[in-house]
Amino acid sequence: MTQKAGRAGYFQPFLPFLPVFTPPPAAVTSYRTKDKSSFFQEDKAMTRRSLLAVVAGVALTGLTAPVATRTRENANDLDRMMFVKFTRPVALPGVALGAGTYVFELPDPIDAWNVVRVTSQDRRRVYLTAFTRIVDRPRGLRPDQVVSFGEASPSAPQPIKVWWPTGDSTGREFIY
């Protein structure tokens, strides 16, 4: 009269008068245990995803970091930033500038080396951002000459034809 302990329960042989409760098949849930190799694979995948997220975050932070504005003392040679002072009104394509000091620069000297931006001295107002032609500096041109003017009527502002960055063998000719 010995029975093996199984689904009927361990105490069944000792208590034959008690009904045995067996859960219905739908209520039985099975838990599969994972082997160690799948745990390690998931751990590696998590590590890769975390590393990728960190690298992406650092790259995004570097791309969106604010760029410090430069002053006259620490102007960058690459962007050819210059403060140019005019004593009379001048003109650029589509805009007339009154007498005063303006900033001439290459906003993106690596990718857009033919684009020139002209702003107010405090750099709060942009007067012109335009494509230009690169032209060679003539041999007879004085090294301290930073602009060449075009012709205009006496009552109109004189148009700036070419901007010559200091120390550069080429200039930027404005397209009218």
Structure description:
By secondary structure, the protein is of the alpha+beta class. It folds into 2 domains: 33-64; 82-174, no CATH class. Helices cover 16% and strands 27% of the residues. Strands 1, 2, 3, 4, 5, 6, 7, 8 and 9 form a 9-stranded mixed sheet that branches. It is elongated. 11% of the residues are buried.
Question: Could you outline the blueprint of secondary structure elements for this entry?
Answer:
Layout: H1 36-64, E1 82-86, E2 90-92, E3 95-97, E4 100-105, E5 115-120, E6 126-136, E7 147-149, E8 158-163, E9 170-174
Parallel strand pairs: 2-8
Antiparallel strand pairs: 1-4, 2-3, 4-5, 5-6, 6-9, 7-8, 8-9
Terminal CA distance reads 111 Å
Q: Indicate the mean pLDDT.
A: 75
Residue runs with pLDDT of under 50 for 5 or more positions: 60-75
| Percent in strands | 25-35%
Main β sheet profile: 9 strands, mixed
Give the tally of β-strands: 9
- C-alpha Rg, in Å? 39 Å
Structural class, from secondary structure content? alpha+beta
SSE sequence, one letter per element: HEEEEEEEEE
| Count of helix runs | 1
Number of domains: 2
Which range best describes the helical content: under 10%, 10-25%, 25-40%, 40-55%, 55-70% or over 70%?
A: 10-25%
Based on CA inertia axes, which overall geometry fits?
elongated
Please supply descriptive tags for the structure shown above.
single chain, 176 residues, alpha+beta, 2 domains, 9 strands
